Amino acid sequence: MEVKHNIQLRDVIQDRIALTGVSQAKLSETISTTPAQLSLYLRGKASLNNEALESLISALDINVASYNKRFQLAKDIAHFFNVEKVPMNVVLKMKHEDMILTTGKAELKYLVDVNAEEFKYIVASGIIDFEGTYPFFRVMVAQLMNVGEKPTAKTITESILEVAKKIPSINQLFKVIPFVGAYTGTSMYVTGKLAESAIEIFGKQVGFLAPLLSLTIHSLEE
């Protein structure tokens, strides 16, 4: 998986170089490495240290920071809903404009609101970032409402179970029993089933976000 991601990042960097027209000589000077080292990296023959790679991504305006900013926004809104005691099932059904009005976060209006079929196409095509859609963001907020201040693998999978329990079609499909207490076995089972469901829905392997993608589709189909 790591090798594949490294190849994809290198491809993105090469595409961006072609788009900007910057020379490798100028680019290597900007990121404090040699033209030879940069050339070897772009051909997959060598690596760059973290500092040089981060400088390269920044110099080419590849916006990886948007993922962190979107996540932080989701965390802030999840905290707000917890403080205001807004139930998770209400959050999962909340319309785009209502979340903007309730939270006062005007930047939410730039998330793309889509229906189930449109979301499936976005994920399958890979042309548009599905994390920039409102339905996925809404599920992310709901999931973060239960993970706590210091998330662990256990609290995260249990939180996914809590979200699943609030979506009737999933509750019925997986026969989720509303236990009070030892969730670990049930939460791992549901997380695995959601991942399998995502593969069936999208027709391809979608990575570790598969449970959240599956939750998003089911929440849209309610």
How would you describe the overall organization of this protein?
By secondary structure, the protein is mainly alpha-helical. Helix content is 67%, strand content 0%. The chain has 13 helices and no strands. The chain is elongated, with a radius of gyration of 20 Å. Mean pLDDT is 86; it is low at 1-5 and 179-183.
Which key phrases capture this entry?
elongated; 222 residues; mainly alpha; disordered N terminus
TL;DR?
The chain contains 13 helices and no strands.
Detail the topology: elements first, then pairings.
Blueprint: H1 2-20, H2 24-30, H3 35-42, H4 50-59, H5 65-83, H6 88-93, H7 96-103, H8 116-125, H9 134-144, H10 153-165, H11 168-174, H12 184-202, H13 210-220
What gyration radius follows from the Cα positions, in whole Å? 20 Å
Number of helices: 13
Instruction: Report the structural category.
Output: mainly alpha
Q: Mean pLDDT, as a whole number?
A: 86
User: Hey, roughly how much beta strand do the residues contain?
Assistant: under 5%
How are helices and strands ordered from N to C?
Answer: HHHHHHHHHHHHH
Strand element count:
0
